[in-house]
Amino acid sequence: MKVRIAAGASREEASAIAAAVAEHVGESVEVFVGDSDEPTLVREVSEMDDDGTDSPPETDEDLGPTDREKRLREEIADIERGGPEKYRERLAEQGKLFVRDRLELWFGDEGLDFEDGRFANFDGWRSEARSASDSRANEGRETADSPDGEASDNDDRLPADGLVTGAGTVDGRKAHVAANDFTVKAGSVAKHGVEKFLRLQQRALKTGRPALYLVDSSGGRIDQQRGFFANREGIGKFYYNHSILSGAVPQICVLYGPCIAGAAYTPVFSDFTVMVRGMSALAIASPRMVEMVTGEDIDLETLGGPDVHARHSGSADLVADDEEHARDLVADLITYLPDNCEEKPPSRDPVAPSKSPEGLDSVVPQEPNKGYDMHRVIDRVVDGDSFFELQPEYGKEILTGFARIDGRTVGVVANQPSHRAGAIFPDSARKAAEFVWKCDAFNVPLLYLCDTPGFMAGSGVEKEGILEAGKKMIYATSSATVPKQCVVVRKAYGAGIYAMSGPAYDPEATLALPSGEIAIMGPEAAINAVYANKLDAIDDPDERAEREAELREEYRRDIDAHRMASEVVIDEIVPPSDLRAELAARFEMYETVEKERPQKKHGAIL
Description:
Oligomer: single chain
Number of strands: 20
Number of helices: 22
Radius of gyration: 35 Å
Structural class: alpha/beta
Helix content: 25-40%
CATH class of the largest domain: Alpha Beta
CATH topology of the largest domain: 2-enoyl-CoA Hydratase, Chain A, domain 1
Strand content: 15-25%
CATH superfamily of the largest domain: 2-enoyl-CoA Hydratase, Chain A, domain 1
């Protein structure tokens, strides 16, 4: 359609008339102004929005990021630079990675799969930075952000509120992730960081995915404690949620710095905790506070360094040499764990043992009191290089760790005769109880390798709570519903056979090697207890020694594995060279076992 309008009309007026007519008639319009032979303006119907207003023709050729999107990306980059540069430099001096570089180490160059709460506290520090920038720009002075785009040394910067949360992929395994940014107020947490952490925990419960905590935090931000410390949804809810998540999904903590007071609880609530040598510390109070309260002058390493918690408290499951080693340890650990309590642990293709099973019998001494390293037995039973030991420096009389037998994940609980004769002390009992509890929570079958004189006796261990610790170990073994196999490698004396899942503790089988013995006590103690008076009546030393030897041999025949098998106390005596194959067959047979326990709220033994 052609439309002619009066001379002198502006282009804007011509455009408005063209748009109105085109909308009304539904076809293209040519507008001629005055006597002109050429149209001043042509309006196609496709050039208008649904509301009739002008719209530029849509093409894909010229589309790209808008200025609005570019500004957003600049803001994101600014947030990801973290806190002041001076604190980044201090990290380098300490041999530590900046949190974003740490995430690249863990999850590759792209970092997290996605991030939540990146803009936490953005309005606060960023609006102040903008105001400062605007006020200084007219004066030609340096703005709040440095000219080269690097973050300024503005201590009011709180990017992401000092905590990065989201999800990432570690060697093919998805996990929820929280990582402190130590350049922001020493990794401390306040209102928004607390909210982010709580949301991560809640999401882990929903998805049934592991929770990974990369902790480098000084704790709660004391000067901002209002609004997050004692609130219902405050920092105290961390540990409530840790408790709810416990046994539902694996919680793994890697500690990169001093974690004092409230910050120390996430590591100890986690199922598995890794400390990094030369970086990590864990304590209920700082050395300064300890001195104020007790008068004790102590440094942080001595108070709560990795050696303290790996050897004495048991709070550290593993100690890494550096950040790369910490990542490798966790990547290995998760290959033994399912994503959650509803799944079975991963399996792999079978691998031959690192040592030949045919040498097993030669490893185990015939004499019940002679020491040897139980690792040499494990190396001949499990898949090659698959034994992943936990807490190796704590409670060394018992070995605990994950392994594979014919590709299947198992949890190994083994007495260690090379350390304190394999007797069970309070710390080793607690260590075993906690490991059994975790295995049962995540459906990992259990293999007990028993060679112990039983629980240690004496005033020292009584003060340390040997009965209480032993009770917990026996309780964990009794309550476990996963398939269990008990192997009496050599001696199983006293309540040691109970704690190591002997016949009365619902194992799928109690097996023994030909060196095995089961008894209330060992031959020496038994002879002394039963025959002391009769032996004392023998005056001739040679005659007494001969009689003791006879009694000892009689006693050992009575407790020998053959007698136990004859009376069907145990299920089978296995040729040592066949033990691995026997265990593989039994774990395969019983992998679908589901054990019933009485319906109740929970047991009363912790």
